[in-house]
Amino acid sequence: MIDLHSHILFGLDDGASELDISIEMARIAVADGITHMACTPHVQEGVYPNDWATIRPVLEVLQQALRELRIPLTLFCGAEAHLAWDLPERLLRGDIPTLNDSRYFLLELPHLVVPPRLQDFVLRLKDAGFIPVITHPERLSWAERRPELLVKIAELGCPLQLTADSLLGRFGMTAQAQAASFVDAGLLVFVASDAHSPRARAPRMSAAMKLVASRWGEETAQRMFIEIPQIILSDGMLPDAARQHLLPRRPMTSGSGVGRLLTLLRAGL
């Protein structure tokens, strides 16, 4: 498996606090079947003032430690950038690492409020040559009320990154149902751990992959845990959900926000 969202780097944000914890997280990831991991510390003005200059050296220290300890986890540079109006300019300057120097980067939206003019902002990013990956949309408190915003963003070619623990119900029933509805809808989605520690939020994804395989099929599981992350790391072209490369394995239910939206669209309302 490939994990494109982790807070394994020590001393940079609310993830690992020291090198030994980072190493313990790496051991857990490898034991769970993760072979490649993007290191994506928070970037948020006034809270986590990270950039390329702070992230890259810590990644190199951790990767060297893993080599010496023969822990077979390959690390890639990245960041989880909180929404800010000057993000396109900062990305163009190279201040904020994208995922493995690709055009893709992790974008964290506000959890409590709907971002104004979100589509316009995404189009600005794309015009600048970048593709935002929306992190944990199922955990946004406004996602169930305004699912059409996330559907439109996904239809613009921006992947939605679901959290493995959300699919397992560890962030509550609402997040679990919302995550499942995105998969049911055939949107452009993949899964990452968003790991923060060796315990409560550990870098484990195999249980979620088994769940996806049992509910939506093995091909969907391979796509969400391996193939789409591989494409992103290699700066490739993602499948186009609008051309039905990502067909839902089960019919949508109308109980979730996305389900209600699609029900209304089908009814012509």
TrEMBL record:
Domain of life: Bacteria
Name of the top EC class for this enzyme: hydrolase
E.C. no: 3.1.3.48
Catalytic activity: O-phospho-L-tyrosyl-[protein] + H2O = L-tyrosyl-[protein] + phosphate
UniProt entry keywords in alphabetical sequence: Hydrolase
InterPro entries membership: Caps_polysacc_synth_CpsB/CapC, Pol/histidinol_Pase-like
Pfam families reported for this sequence: CpsB_CapC
Record family assignment: Belongs to the metallo-dependent hydrolases superfamily. CpsB/CapC family.
Record-given protein name: protein-tyrosine-phosphatase
Species per Swiss-Prot/TrEMBL record: Rhizobium wuzhouense
